[in-house]
Prior knowledge:
Blueprint: H1 4-16, H2 18-53, E1 60-65, H3 85-94, E2 99-115, E3 118-127, H4 131-134, E4 138-142, H5 147-152, E5 156-160, H6 161-167, E6 177-180, E7 183-192, H7 197-200, E8 202-206, H8 207-213, E9 222-227, H9 233-254, E10 265-269, H10 270-313, H11 315-323, H12 328-360, H13 377-403, H14 407-412
Parallel strand pairs: 3-8, 5-7
Antiparallel strand pairs: 1-9, 1-10, 2-3, 2-6, 2-9, 4-7, 5-8, 6-7
Helix pairs in contact: 2-10, 2-12, 10-12, 10-13, 12-13
Amino acid sequence: MFNIERWQEIFDAISKNRLRTFLTGVSVASGIFILVILLGAGKGLQNGIEKQFENDAEGIIEVWSNVTTKQYKGLNPGRQIQLRNSDYDLPVKKYDSEINKKSKSRVTWGGSVTYGKESGNYQLRGVNPDYISLENATIVQGRFINDNDLKNHEKVAVIGLKIKQDLFKDADPLGKIIVANGINFKIVGVFTDPAGEREESRVYMPVTTNQRAFGAGDKISGMMFVLNKKANYDEALAQSKKFTDGVKELLKSKNIIAPDDDSAIGIYNSVENAKQFYDLNLYIRLFFWWVGICTIIAGVVGVSNIMLIIVKERTKEIGIRKALGASPFSIVSMILHESIFITTIAGFTGLLASLLLLEFVGPLVQSEYFRNPEVDFGVALTTLGLLVFAGAVAGFFPAYRAAKIKPIVALRDE
């Protein structure tokens, strides 16, 4: 029940010690302010990491070849392994039921691309139809390469938005003919990529056309896969590791590579790498929680010390109250109210200041691995609730001490 006299006592006590109360409130407010800012920074790191993984499809596995580093079956180290169509066919055939999306690719770096009087050097990449999904790119005009293009070795191309801006300006590129390394290709689509201009400086074409047009035979540069989704992360990680180990074994056996030569075949497993990033992010956020909570504890200890001083100053008053029949509960309640009031007001002020800072300043802080720092409102309210509870605990012990004071002892206090 609302007791106006009790609140008058609280405000009277605060007004008599304004500086002390203010400094105590600042220590509490700074504690929750620092905690919320640190939690927001942790979320910003998580958002940045997640944005990086948006650049490729979820669970992507990429395979490429390197140079052998060990002698094997009479073959010297230092051999450059060349992947071919048959290398791609091996895992596709063996793991067909586990593969959701797949593509081989052949890359020509620094290819010359010309349209009219405009020209530039861009990456020419022969791919399969699934490649658009593997790169998490989006078609903004026209279409991507299809199975018919692949089968009939069609001379069609899909260009990145950067190339469109460089060569065509504001003109519509669909149906236009570009010359790539001396070969004519008809543009059937334009794509954009979340990774930006680097990825958008590519010309995609059917891998079969690329191999035939540029005299590559059956050579490929690499291959990419996305496996079927699993119910949870642990299952997905186990599946991807089994797949990558199996692919390595197949390719090593076919290309006469020593079983323990881990450098000859390169594999990037985003599922496995994602765990490392998210584990790191978890440790950082736990550290932020730890620092923030320690700061809050320091503020709460300050509240407790202030309440002990207040109890000491009001010892005679407490003795008079008890002599007049005040119950221990009313004494405890009187001290607790003041402690909770100071903690709540200071905590809410710190919380509001931190949320406003994240709201207005956070979006301005952008980097590759840090974006949109924010705190879930439920988490923010939970931290405030914990702070109020801590304030109650901080005030309880001084209040309990006050309730235990004997009236005769309190009245003798100077």
